Structure formats: structure tokens, C-alpha cells
């Protein structure tokens, strides 16, 4: 802050000596992106961005680019109690209240939009009556006047103004008091706690009320209030809070437009024909009637508004020529061009060399003329044509007069060995540097930071900086002897250098430390020990996000979701989808002094192991010539990230604030924790279902087998009983001894629920056993022998035994084959033939399905089970 105040002081001193040396302003207008050239008001946001209210709309400037906030009739609220000029108030909730003659607008900076229908807005905060005027005091409290009542936005304080004379024009505060400024020139003080009127003080007598009644502009100072008043005349007043007295500091016969006051009480006032500078302490006044632009022309328009920014620069808003900006350090180089050379019509101004005499006069040699440079003449920088006959032999030798013509060689070999032992060699294609520690040589090109590859001249100043001129621009190089690191700073026309080419070998340092650089269109001068600010007053601001190369717009949906719900400077965290990984982040250092001399370093935690530093306008470093930083990352994996950015206008020190931007790239839904939980749950559920299904099927098969065995046992019991009664008549009903062993002890014929069904099964079994040796005994034959159709037989056997007729026949054949195998009298082929199988292989297949083993293995298996 102290450095900025010092810059204000430098600026004021420059203004007070404006007659000796004009200030040079840099224009900023519609060519640079301003919406229109009619500038009405200027403010600076807390984050450092500039806001310019023009006749067309709101312009928000980040040092390189403009954003516009458009308005229409829906955004205008009738403000009948305000008859003044443009006023913009900043509120603590990131809003701008804009007052114009009987008009009110409200801008939400987080959405970069005007608020529509302010009548509803006021109703929503409890004000149903018409609002006549609004004010914001220096504590950013919003006050609304309706009739004779003034209320705080939250209604916690309501003041009755009915006993005050005149029209309320301004409101401001100090400590626990609120001050009202009326068109009568009166200031009325209220104590907020008691709501009691403490005193009234008038700025001028009754006879002058009509002179200053129209408009008022209040600026809070250290010891009181500064007021700009207009009517038939313009007036500048100061109210001392301790003495409770007014003082008129300036009166003009014309309108005074805008007032700004710095921390030292230096007031700057814009008007139709220039700027007033008034020291409120010493009461000294200075007037700057003309403004000199960069191109040397003078401004001829009304200065409608002005503002000091927090970097020490002065902004001028004009009535029809846009913006003008001045900073004491903006133009580091003084440009001496063709207009400074006397009698230069048709003559060259290719500056080839410089020389200095014993009393400090600087001589400049061109191709055909010699000039003496006069820096302290009454008219400022000028050149005086000198006859060579009047020059001393020493000056002639220094100017190298014998070199009568300028040659442009492609074998430029400008050389210099600096105080650290580094050897520099300038060529037509790069700058070679030899490091004495590593004994290695490398070549620097534009990709390393040079403004141009054709090096014309090399010189070292008293601070051990290396300066080189090129075919376009000037470079400063600083070396770190221990590390061998080289820092390069480029200076172009926006720093005051020549726009044309510089000349080979034309570099010179005077006895007072000034550097002179000769070119084909004049020469440039660099003053020694220029003041500079090492620390920028603002942290870099996040200005834009690009997704897959496309600029992300506020409130717009991308891939089904809104990425920026607020404007970029107000974003603290960004959520991105898994496929939104090609990102470019844009930052601005808000370096209005000299955009091209902005340096950055950045680091993405989790990706960059260390800070990445950028010291030049190299495209591959994503820093363009406007000083805007663009950082690109591609194919980032899902995760949480934090991007850190710092900025400086000094290429060696990083003392500024760190800008932080957090963003999260969410994984695809199938890679989220919830998805993994669901996948595990589904897997467990499927496993349970599979196990359950398997157990259910096994149990069902066991139950089926058990039912089948029980039914067979019961049938065998029935057959056994029949056999006991008819064994002589029906020998085929005899069951084996082994089957008798499998009969349950408690099983009797009473267990058969239906004697008819048991008889049916017995008959069916007997028919099959009777025809075992008939290979083609089929289901059709069995159904005919039972006097049934095939469908009826199928249903019957499925109901009773849960088996199809073909399986019923096959099982009986297999069981009979098992008996024969145990007897051991026949071969497998013979048994297959006896029990009606077409082949032994088919018998083996069916046997395995029934008993779980091959026929050849059955005997051993049977013995093991019954041993």
C-alpha cells in the first residue's frame, strides 16, 4: 500500500510540472474491445477488475479482455428522487447499484446479469411502497428512501427525515453516525443508536444555494467528507468532522464531473477541459488542460470521469474517445522518433552510434547527419543539428564517423563478456551464451523468450543486466551465476520501444546511467533506477474455462450438467464429469501497468511436482502477449485437484498472493463407491441365488428320488404280497432278495393310498418285465397292452411316479440288467440283448445315468456298499 501511495505522489508531482513535460496516456477504446467510447463512470472491484459504465452497457475489464453486461427496459426502475449523473455503488453481496437521472439498475456480478423487475425485488425485502432513492455508505450498507423515511435494507433502522429542508442527495457514515447531504448545502448528522439528530452545518450561505443545488458527489476522506457540487457553477468543498465546519476549495464557472481523493488528501477532479489537482492540506491547486496520447496527439474531448486504480495508475473516461490510462512506469523507454529530428524531410533517421562529451552532452550519428540530444530543453526532448566541423576529434572518433554508410550484414557478431564471465555473442539467428562454469555454450531463440532472433547490439548496464536490441524489440537478460539460469524480459512498443528495427552495434550507456538504443526510425532511451512494484496488488483472477477447446459459458449445460453456475472470478470449486478432462484454465494478473511484463508460475497439485514458471510471451508456455495465462491439461484422471497460480511483474521474486481453484473430476458411475457397493451386493445376491437354486434343485432331485424309491418299495411290497398268493401262477412277480432288504420294515399294503393305482403300476411293471427281451417294446405297445392312449399313459405315470413312460420302461430294463450283472453268468453284450437294449454302449450310458457307474464297475461298487 505504501508503494501505491508513493506512486500517487509521483503522479501528482508529474501533474504539477505538466508544463515542462506532458504525461503520456495509453488509449483504450472500441478498437480494443470497449463496447462504446462514451464512458460515464469507472470503479474498481475488490478483486481488482475494472468496471466501465458506458452509454451502451457495463464493461468488465480483466487487463486484456472485456465482458459486457447488456440491459433493456425490463431492468430499469423509475427513481424519481434522483436528478444527478451516473453513480455506481458497490454492495457487499457482489452487486452494483447504478443510478442515472431518475433511473435505477441493479447488476449481479456473480451471474453477470441485470436484475429484472426491481419492484418485485424491493417487495421481497419488505418495501411495498415506491422507492425514491438508494444509497450505499462507506460500510457498504444499503439505505432506501421512500418519501420522508430512510430505511436500512433489513429494516433494523428507520429514520424520519420530514423535519429536514431540501432534497436528500447523498448519504455516508462515520463511526456511529450517519450523515445526510441536501441540495441546500446542508449536512445533517444523526446518531444511529439513538436516532437523534446531532447537528446541521451548511456549506455556503443562503444566497449560494441556487448555484450548487443540482448534483452532489461525496468522497469519504481521512478527517472528513469531500463534496463535489454542481449547478450554474461547479464547487469543491471539504467538511471537517472534528471542527464541524465546511470549506470551499474550488469554484469554477463550469461543471465538475468526477472526484477522487487519495490517502494523502490529494484530490483529482475531471471537467470538460482537463483535470484539476488540489492538495486539500496545502490548498495548492494545479490544472492540466491538455492530455497527451501515446501517438503524440493531444486529447480534445471532455473528461467525464476518472479513477486511480490500486496499482497506481490513472484512468480517464472521456465523453466520446473511450478510455485513457497513465502509469508512471508504463513506458519504461522514451521514444525519440522522426518528429523530434529537425529538417528531416526526405532524410534518413537511421541512428548508427552515440557519443558523450565531458559536460554530458549526447551526440547522435545518423547515416547523413549528426545531432545533439537536448533532454532538458524548455520544450522537452529535442534534437539540434550539428555541423561536423564543430565536433572535437574525440567525439568524431567515438561516433565512428569514418563509417559513412549503414550495412545490414547477415554475419552479425556483436560480442560481450559480462562481469560474471558469461560470453554473449549476437548473431542473425539467435543469441549464443557461453557459461564459464559448465564450459558449455547454448543458443537462445524466440522460443526461449527473445523478442526476435536477429540480435543487433549487446550492452551491460551498471546493475549487471544484459540488454540486447533485435530486429523487433529489446530484451533484458539476468543471469544466476551459481545455477546458470537466465531470465529474459521482452520489451515491445507497449513499453515505449521503437516499432521498427534496431541497428547493429548502436547501443550506448551515458555517464549518468542512461541507455541509448539506435534504430532505423530513431532511438530509444532507458532511464536508470526506474521505480517498480515488485508485488502486484491482486492475486491472479480466474477469468475463463475452456472444455475441449470450447469456452465454457456461464449457466450453460455441458454433457447434461452446468459447469459454471457463477461467473469465473466467483467460482471456488468446479465439478466435472469423467469425460470432461481436456481443460484450459485462463487467469489474469490484472497488471494494467504493463500487460506484456507479467510473469506467472502455477502448479496443479497431484500432477505437477513443482511450480512451473513462465517468464516470457512464449506460445508454448501458454502466455500470450496480452499478459493472460492459459494453462492446459489433458486426459486428467478422476480425482480432486487444486490449481495454484501466482503472478509478478518482477522475474525473480514471488511475493504476491496465491490464487486457488479447486476442481473435482468425478469418476464414471460404474467406478464410484456406490457402484462398487452395488456390484458387490449384486454379486453376493447372485451367489446366494445360485447356491439357493442349486440346493433347491438338489433337494428337489433327492425328494423326487426318495418319492420314487418309496413308491417302488410300496409297489414291491404289493407285488410281494401278490407273489405270496400267486407265486405258482405268476413267477415273474417274484422280487429279488436284495429288493426285499430295501423294503422298509413298517411298509405294508395299507401304505398304498389307492389300490387301483397300485394295481396299475404293478400291471405296467409286469408287462415291461415280461417283454424285456423285446428290443422294440415301446411306449405305444405298453399303452395298448394297458388299454390306454399314449397321452393318458404319460399323464398317469407322471402323476404317480414323476416319470415319463419311456423312462419308466428304461429304468425297469436297467434294474433287470443290474440283477443279471450281479449274477455274473452273462456278458454285458448278452445282458443288453436280454433286457432289450440295442447295444451294450447304450446300456452302459443308461446304466451310468441310473447308478452313477459303468456296468463293469457295478459289481465292485455293490460289494463295497454291502460289505
TrEMBL record:
<dbReference type="InterPro" id="IPR011123">
    <property type="entry name" value="Y_Y_Y"/>
</dbReference>
<keyword id="KW-0805">Transcription regulation</keyword>
<protein>
    <submittedName>
        <fullName>Helix-turn-helix domain-containing protein</fullName>
    </submittedName>
</protein>
<feature type="domain" description="HTH araC/xylS-type">
    <location>
        <begin position="762"/>
        <end position="861"/>
    </location>
</feature>
<keyword id="KW-0804">Transcription</keyword>
<keyword id="KW-1133">Transmembrane helix</keyword>
<dbReference type="InterPro" id="IPR013783">
    <property type="entry name" value="Ig-like_fold"/>
</dbReference>
<keyword id="KW-0812">Transmembrane</keyword>
<dbReference type="InterPro" id="IPR018060">
    <property type="entry name" value="HTH_AraC"/>
</dbReference>
<feature type="transmembrane region" description="Helical">
    <location>
        <begin position="674"/>
        <end position="695"/>
    </location>
</feature>
<dbReference type="Pfam" id="PF07495">
    <property type="entry name" value="Y_Y_Y"/>
</dbReference>
<keyword id="KW-0472">Membrane</keyword>
<keyword id="KW-0732">Signal</keyword>
<feature type="signal peptide">
    <location>
        <begin position="1"/>
        <end position="20"/>
    </location>
</feature>
<dbReference type="InterPro" id="IPR018062">
    <property type="entry name" value="HTH_AraC-typ_CS"/>
</dbReference>
<dbReference type="InterPro" id="IPR011110">
    <property type="entry name" value="Reg_prop"/>
</dbReference>
<dbReference type="InterPro" id="IPR009057">
    <property type="entry name" value="Homeodomain-like_sf"/>
</dbReference>
<dbReference type="Pfam" id="PF07494">
    <property type="entry name" value="Reg_prop"/>
</dbReference>
<keyword id="KW-0238">DNA-binding</keyword>
<dbReference type="Pfam" id="PF12833">
    <property type="entry name" value="HTH_18"/>
</dbReference>
<dbReference type="InterPro" id="IPR015943">
    <property type="entry name" value="WD40/YVTN_repeat-like_dom_sf"/>
</dbReference>
Amino acid at each position: 500500500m505504501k508503494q501505491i501511495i508513493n506512486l500517487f505522489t509521483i503522479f501528482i508531482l508529474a501533474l504539477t510540472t505538466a508544463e515542462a513535460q506532458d504525461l503520456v496516456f495509453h488509449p483504450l477504446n472500441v478498437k480494443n474491445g470497449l463496447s462504446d467510447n462514451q464512458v460515464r463512470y469507472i470503479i474498481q472491484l475488490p478483486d481488482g477488475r475494472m468496471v466501465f459504465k458506458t452509454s451502451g452497457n457495463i464493461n468488465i475489464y480483466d487487463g486484456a479482455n472485456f465482458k459486457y453486461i447488456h440491459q433493456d427496459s425490463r431492468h430499469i426502475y423509475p427513481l424519481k428522487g434522483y436528478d444527478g449523473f451516473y453513480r455506481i455503488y458497490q454492495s457487499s453481496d457482489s452487486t452494483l447499484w447504478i443510478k442515472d437521472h431518475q433511473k435505477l439498475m441493479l447488476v449481479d456480478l456473480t451471474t453477470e446479469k441485470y436484475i429484472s423487475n426491481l419492484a418485485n425485488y424491493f417487495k421481497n425485502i419488505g418495501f411495498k411502497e415506491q422507492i425514491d432513492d438508494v444509497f450505499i455508505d462507506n460500510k457498504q450498507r444499503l439505505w432506501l428512501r421512500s418519501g420522508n423515511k430512510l430505511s436500512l435494507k433489513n429494516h433494523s433502522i428507520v429514520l424520519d427525515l420530514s423535519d429536514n429542508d431540501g432534497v436528500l442527495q447523498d448519504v455516508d457514515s462515520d463511526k456511529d453516525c450517519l450523515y445526510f447531504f441536501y441540495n441546500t448545502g446542508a449536512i445533517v448528522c444523526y446518531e444511529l443508536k439513538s436516532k437523534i439528530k446531532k447537528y446541521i452545518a451548511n456549506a455556503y450561505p443562503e444566497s449560494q444555494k441556487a448555484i450548487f443545488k443540482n448534483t452532489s458527489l461525496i468522497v469519504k476522506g481521512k478527517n472528513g467528507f469531500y463534496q463535489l457540487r454542481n449547478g450554474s457553477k461547479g464547487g469543491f468543498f471539504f467538511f471537517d468532522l472534528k471542527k464541524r465546519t465546511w470549506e470551499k476549495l474550488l469554484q469554477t464557472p463550469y461543471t465538475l464531473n468526477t472526484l477522487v481523493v487519495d490517502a494523502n488528501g490529494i484530490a483529482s477532479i475531471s471537467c470538460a477541459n482537463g483535470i484539476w489537482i488540489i492538495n486539500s492540506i496545502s490548498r495548492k491547486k494545479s490544472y492540466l488542460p491538455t492530455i497527451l496520447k501515446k501517438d503524440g496527439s493531444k486529447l480534445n474531448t471532455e473528461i467525464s470521469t476518472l479513477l486511480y486504480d490500486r496499482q497506481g495508475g490513472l484512468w480517464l473516461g472521456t465523453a466520446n474517445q473511450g478510455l485513457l490510462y497513465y502509469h508512471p512506469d508504463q513506458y519504461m523507454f522514451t521514444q525519440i522518433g522522426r518528429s523530434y529530428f529537425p529538417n528531416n524531410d526526405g532524410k534518413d533517421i537511421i541512428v548508427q552510434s552515440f557519443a558523450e562529451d565531458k559536460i554530458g552532452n549526447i551526440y547522435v550519428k545518423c547515416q547523413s547527419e549528426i545531432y545533439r540530444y537536448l533532454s532538458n530543453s524548455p520544450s522537452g526532448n529535442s534534437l539540434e543539428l550539428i555541423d561536423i566541423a564543430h565536433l572535437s576529434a574525440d567525439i568524431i572518433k567515438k561516433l565512428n564517423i569514418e563509417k559513412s554508410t549503414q550495412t545490414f550484414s547477415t554475419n552479425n557478431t556483436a560480442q560481450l563478456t559480462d562481469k560474471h564471465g558469461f560470453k554473449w555473442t549476437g548473431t542473425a539467428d539467435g543469441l549464443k551464451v557461453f557459461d564459464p562454469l559448465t564450459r558449455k555454450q547454448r543458443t537462445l531463440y524466440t522460443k526461449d523468450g527473445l523478442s526476435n532472433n536477429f540480435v543487433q547490439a549487446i550492452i551491460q548496464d551498471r546493475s549487471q543486466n544484459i540488454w540486447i536490441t533485435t530486429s523487433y524489440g529489446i530484451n533484458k537478460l539476468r543471469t544466476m551465476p551459481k545455477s546458470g539460469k537466465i531470465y529474459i524480459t521482452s520489451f515491445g512498443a507497449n513499453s515505449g520501444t521503437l516499432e521498427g528495427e534496431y541497428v547493429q552495434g548502436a547501443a550506448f550507456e551515458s555517464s549518468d546511467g542512461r541507455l541509448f538504443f539506435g534504430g532505423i526510425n530513431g532511438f530509444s532511451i532507458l532511464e536508470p533506477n526506474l521505480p517498480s512494484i515488485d508485488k502486484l496488488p491482486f492475486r491472479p483472477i480466474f477469468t475463463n474455462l475452456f472444455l475441449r477447446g470450447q469456452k465454457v459459458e456461464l449457466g450453460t449445460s455441458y454433457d447434461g450438467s452446468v459447469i459454471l453456475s457463477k461467473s469465473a472470478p466467483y467460482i471456488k470449486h468446479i465439478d466435472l464429469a469423467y469425460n470432461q478432462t481436456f481443460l484450459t484454465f485462463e487467469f489474469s494478473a490484472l497488471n494494467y501497468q504493463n500487460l506484456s511484463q507479467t510473469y506467472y508460475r502455477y502448479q496443479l497439485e497431484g500432477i505437477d511436482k513443482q511450480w512451473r514458471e513462465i517468464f516470457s510471451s512464449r506460445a508454448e508456455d501458454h502466455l500470450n502477449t496480452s499478459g493472460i495465462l492459459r494453462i492446459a491439461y489433458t486426459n486428467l484422471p478422476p480425482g480432486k485437484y487444486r490449481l495454484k497460480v501466482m503472478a509478478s511483474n518482477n522475474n525473480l521474486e514471488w511475493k504476491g498472493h496465491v490464487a486457488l481453484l479447486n476442481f473435482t473430476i468425478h469418476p464414471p458411475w460404474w467406478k464410484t463407491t456406490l457402484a462398487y457397493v452395488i456390484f458387490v451386493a449384486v454379486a453376493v445376491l447372485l451367489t446366494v441365488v445360485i447356491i439357493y437354486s442349486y440346493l433347491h434343485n438338489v433337494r428337489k432331485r433327492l425328494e423326487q428320488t426318495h418319492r420314487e424309491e418309496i413308491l417302488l418299495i410300496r409297489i414291491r411290497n404289493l407285488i410281494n404280497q401278490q407273489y405270496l398268493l400267486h407265486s405258482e401262477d405268476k413267477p415273474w412277480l417274484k422280487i429279488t432278495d436284495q429288493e426285499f432288504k430295501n423294503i422298509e420294515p413298517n411298509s405294508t399294503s395299507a401304505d398304498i393310498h389307492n389300490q387301483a393305482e397300485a394295481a396299475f403300476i404293478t400291471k405296467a411293471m409286469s408287462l415291461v418285465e415280461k417283454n424285456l427281451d423285446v428290443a422294440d417294446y415301446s411306449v405305444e405297445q405298453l399303452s395298448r397292452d394297458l388299454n390306454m392312449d399314449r397321452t393318458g399313459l404319460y399323464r398317469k405315470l407322471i402323476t404317480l411316479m414323476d416319470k415319463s413312460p419311456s423312462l419308466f420302461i428304461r429304468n425297469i430294463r436297467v434294474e433287470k440288467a443290474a440283477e443279471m450283472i450281479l449274477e455274473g453268468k452273462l456278458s454285458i453284450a448278452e445282458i443288453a440283448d436280454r433286457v432289450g437294449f440295442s447295444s451294450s454302449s447304450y446300456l452302459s450310458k443308461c446304466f451310468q445315468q441310473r447308478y452313477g457307474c459303468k456296468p463293469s464297475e457295478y459289481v465292485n461298487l455293490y460289494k463295497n456298499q454291502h460289505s
